[in-house]
């Protein structure tokens, strides 16, 4: 089977669009098809517009890649003129997708301002031959009476054109076979433009590129394009165009393309006719809030160059925090109520598996915790999905004494903090043996943050939270504790006898219950 990826770009404010698009793709595509988001969000969040750029969040099952990983095709010479819209300058990056031929046989690129509303997997039966591009005609009613946008309006795959033709297409959806040879040809074409003396010549007018890479691709692939029906790239304004609306009812659309005004932007009088479409996008975005986790480059969040210790603020959304807390404390948590154990200095709930001498026999983590674990694995925070989650509930004034997590777990931990802050102290035990390491590190854990520590930070340091009503940082800042703080410690057990999916017999379930009884007898030892 061909290796297929559906890809989008997340730059600037388009991160909100990338979240909704990629989640819609992941939900509707087969598991073997990758969904990728290429992002420059570390750069965006450090730039002058950073306060206006929301954190990039993605749903489970979506892969994040750094935009800088894509090779670059030089932009056209200045004499050709600037793009029509400033954000079009980011679109040149999509040309680098042609260089992914070592990973994928087929790429489907989609702009981040698109919403999946139908069966996008139908594209998988329309893979083009090498050197051929598949795209939807652009709506050119604004500049031509010969607009062919809905000329291929049939949604029946058997009616799709079989031979390439010449037409101007919209580059919001592109389906192609990546090829380093094709990428190099694009690069050569652009270099030829850049080295030509076009300034003031008639040629410079003939190759204006107000739509940036869209104009370039139309020029580069002329005569090598197979049209796709507009249902795969239903341009928002065309759905209200009398010339097209009868041939393209919204009920037949597969992907709506929000050209011009964006649904995540403040409402505008100019967009009133499209409010019902914008509302549909916003409903999708709201539904994703509990499973939209912050993603970015881990290297940017390392707390000390010598330690594998990372802090990611604002990792979970308020909606995700609410979902997790409801799982532990709410009316839906009836099945867990008997699992809480009151220790001397906190309350504890263990989920998943316990570190038993015979190897853990695990249970499924509750849904919101399991989704969190899946994301921690996908983003590389943990080397695999966690099979244990300790939920610690602290009242104000309660903490935890200095301790190692020990050899019964893999040497990596992810801690998600909910409800209230706390100051976590790390202390190096054998200072003389490791002079290259800092003797002490403190980390302020804010609500909804993620802390990950591994290897030396796990094996050589003890960590603690003071028993206090407030914390004082090394800089002298006093942080008052909340009435309750909940923390999730997610780990992978070193010795697993049976994963949750492997527990299928009554004998296995009884053995698991026996392990939990043993755990209850030992639990006071961990306080």
TrEMBL record:
InterPro entries according to UniProt: AlkB-like_sf, ALKBH6, Glyco_trans_8, Nucleotide-diphossugar_trans, Oxoglu/Fe-dep_dioxygenase_dom
Keyword Oxidoreductase recorded: yes
Ranges of residues in domain Fe2OG dioxygenase: 385-487
Keywords: Dioxygenase, Iron, Metal-binding, Nucleus, Oxidoreductase
Organism taxonomic ancestry: Eukaryota, Sar, Alveolata, Dinophyceae, Suessiales
Entry's family note: Belongs to the alkB family.
Pfam families xref list: Glyco_transf_8
GO cellular component: nucleus
Species whose genome carries this gene: Polarella glacialis (Dinoflagellate)
Entry keyword Nucleus: yes
GO MF: dioxygenase activity; glycosyltransferase activity; metal ion binding
Family matches, as Gene3D superfamilies: Alpha-ketoglutarate-dependent dioxygenase AlkB-like, Spore Coat Polysaccharide Biosynthesis Protein SpsA, Chain A
Subcellular location: Nucleus
The protein's name: Fe2OG dioxygenase domain-containing protein
